[in-house]
Amino acid sequence: MSPSQQRISRRIGAIAESATLAVDAKAKALKAQGRPVIGFGAGEPDFPTPDYIVAAAAEALENPANFRYSPAAGQPKLRAAIARATARDSGWEVADSQVLVTNGGKQAVYQAFQTVVDDGDDVLLPAPYWTTYPEAIRLAGGNPVEVFAGAEDDYKVTPEKLEAAWTPRTRALLFCSPSNPTGAVYTAEETRAIGEWAAAKGIFVISDEIYQHLTYDGVEFVSMAQAVPELHENLILVNGVAKTYAMTGWRVGWLVGPQDVVKAATNLQSHLSSNVNNVAQAAALAALEGPLDQVDAMREAFDRRRRTIVEGLNAIDGVNCPVPTGAFYAYPDVTGLLGREFDGVRPETSAELAELILEKAEVAVVPGEAFGPSGYLRLSYALGDDDLAEGLARLQKFLGGKN
Ligand SMILES: Cc1ncc(COP(=O)(O)O)c(C=O)c1O
């Protein structure tokens, strides 16, 4: 290798570390040093995986068939259960062959872009966006085209905003509702308007529904699949068990789409990772076939914490936190805090503010820069009630309450 050659490929060298995982790692490292850090960083429920799901995994460990390779697209029973769940929860009747089981929703996102995006294609990306999307788009050779909607728009884009960003090179739209990082949920009408616009343009829609069971205040989740049936030939749903069943570490997700897309994505997976761990697939099957009552209990806890966090954040002078109606994130606009002095330091960006809050108040939050423009923080409220109260008290003390 000549000295002028770079050791890491341009494609991979350009990837940034996942900012949310980085904040979490930093908080855990400080904790390991004995600092009492409270983490609002990680997007994972603090509940254990329900017992009946764990029991199904334990049983699967006893079956030697699970020690072997299985079909790359997923265990037939799980694909069938996902097809049923898609009909029940997303209003789309699909064949089992339209389902691909992946290593978490994250791999489904990656494979969806790899499968439909070519070099130089534009992909419309509503911002603030989940931090993985732009990297997955770039890895597929595409250009993420950010379409921003701020707190004043309830963090929701419209067909007009999308139209302004559309070019003849636009190949796909990423749609995420309920949203990570903002917690915004599009209404049925808003979803329909965007889906109809996309259908008229003939572009793909990749719709990430991983938070579909977590909505509050009576807000109803309506899938893009149900809202715009004419989009089905160009629609890819992404989903998984991580958030709904407190199963982040089990790594089971899926994508659902038209036959040709799923077949091509399966070919990719057959070379990339083959089948998802059979024991984890058995656990996911138990989750999907089981009742949703434990999910309801978790949602109630999240709902209580949501109200506490929004109230606590809005009590800080310079913070404007719209009420999120889905997922488990609050996304306050903190532009009012930038340029002010805290403990002798004047943060000019939300990244500097987050750094300062971690260092001085021992509270981990993710800066808006991880999800789009500066000026925002993301706080996950999927942490215990006591930590939540203590974390808010520290933030209020450090940043100052409203007079
Ligand atoms: C919007 C969104 N989609 C997909 C995922 C992927 O979840 P997993 O890979 O854990 O199934 C996440 C996880 O944070 C997410 O927030």
**Total strand count, please?**
12
Strand order of the largest sheet: 2-8-7-6-5-3-4
Q: So what's the overall shape?
A: globular
Supply the CATH superfamily name of the largest domain.
Type I PLP-dependent aspartate aminotransferase-like (Major domain)
* CATH C-level of the largest domain: Alpha Beta
User: Helix and strand succession?
Assistant: HHEHHEHEHEHEHEHEEHHHEHEEEH
Which structural class is indicated by helix and strand composition? alpha/beta
Give the ligands present: pyridoxal-5'-phosphate
Question: What is the straight-line distance between the termini?
Answer: 63 Å
Radius of gyration over all CA atoms, rounded: 21 Å
CATH T-level fold name of the largest domain = Aspartate Aminotransferase, domain 2
The major pleated sheet works out as:
7 strands, mixed
pLDDT < 50 stretches? none
**What share of residues is helical?**
40-55%
Cofactor: pyridoxal 5'-phosphate
Pfam families: Aminotran_1_2 (PF00155)
Organism: Kocuria varians (Micrococcus varians)
GO biological process, one term: amino acid metabolic process
3D structure, described in words:
The chain has helices at 10-13, 19-32, 51-61, 76-90, 104-116, 132-139, 159-165, 188-201, 224-227, 259-272, 278-289, 293-314, 350-361, 385-399, and strands spanning 38-39, 99-102, 122-127, 143-148, 170-176, 204-208, 235-240, 253-256, 329-330, 363-364, 366-367, 377-380. The protein is α/β, with parallel strands linked by helices and 403 residues long. It folds into two domains: 10-48 and 294-399, Aspartate Aminotransferase, domain 1, CATH 3.90.1150.10; 51-289, Type I PLP-dependent aspartate aminotransferase-like (Major domain) (Aspartate Aminotransferase, domain 2), CATH 3.40.640.10. β6, α9 and β7 form a beta-alpha-beta unit. The longest helix is centred in the C-terminal third of the chain and has 22 residues, at 293-314. The structure holds pyridoxal-5'-phosphate. Residues 43, 104-106, 109, 130, 176, 180, 208, 210, 240, 242, 248, 253 line the site of pyridoxal-5'-phosphate (PLP). Its EC number is 2.6.1.-. Residues 36-392 form the Aminotransferase class I/classII large domain.
